[in-house]
Amino acid sequence: MKTPFAIGAGLLGLMLSTVIHAADVEISADISADTTLVSSNRYIITTEVHVKQGVTLTIENNTLILIRNGVEFAAKPTSTRRPSLIFDTGSTMLAEDVYFKACDDTNQPVNKALNAGLFLLGSSSMTRRDLNIMTSLSVHPSFFKANRIHTEYLGARDPFLHQNKARSLTKQQKLKLYQRIDDFDAIQVIGVNGSEWDVASIYSLGSGDDGFDLEDCAISVKNVQVAGSTEDGLNLTNSRLDITGSLDLNVGITGLRDRDLFDLEVDRAPSIIRIAQNAQVRLDGIFGDQAWLRSDDLPHKNQVRYQYNGKTVKGQSYVYSVNKD
Description:
By secondary structure, the chain is mainly beta. It has helices at residues 12-18, 171-180, and strands at 2-5, 24-27, 35-37, 42-45, 48-51, 56-59, 63-68, 84-87, 92-95, 97-103, 118-121, 128-129, 133-134, 143-152, 187-190, 197-205, 212-215, 218-227, 234-237, 240-252, 262-265, 271-275, 280-286, 292-294, 305-311, 317-321. 5% of the residues lie in helices and 42% in strands.
């Protein structure tokens, strides 16, 4: 059963409370009042949806949220021009295990990433990202709490970055296309500090771009697992990520260029991944030419396939970059 409606202020609580269980509930407007998503329903994000500042979105354990694939060229275009779920600066997510997957126009999950994914925007910096996705310094800090964020086939490739036909386009044509459609990672965390973050585990499968992306962040996660991302496993810009339990990046090697385990970018501050002592680490792919490694456990990086499966028993390990790319 499909129950389409627009979630917004006013009738929000009434509409959610009267939805028949086991329904497909389509969300086609911003969430502007406190809301609970129940696990007996499936929720479908059909457009760019924002959880507005000051709003708490509570997600029951094992709830499935589908993000529809597609591109939107509306008269009043959205920021991403794709279906996406964006937690604005000052919003709150309260969840246990929550599942995000791509779906088609019939609301069936698909193993294809053509959406703009999940954005979690903090309040620790003023950062502009991609097509007018912005964080701001706020007296209302964000807060994101979950035991596990599980994503499958979120995000989207830059549509022309890896296609031969891009070579035949003029510079002006490429610029016009990039202004209309951008590449998006599965999970994009921007401007979030430790006091705003309480997420234990991240799982990202089949991302349309990078598996897990941080910009202007300083956060800690117990477990990070990325598999089958179209591009890099972890992408950090001016960020620090502490991993206390396990890191599993299965990127492998494909015919795509510039596809690494780690892409660490530096504009204003170093990017650092700290892996705690006794953490379980499994890595498979190209290490990354902009990333440096300091570890008594992991083997020295190389420019061919890097593989490791073991624990950091001797001490902490660091993957980092301190120079502008």
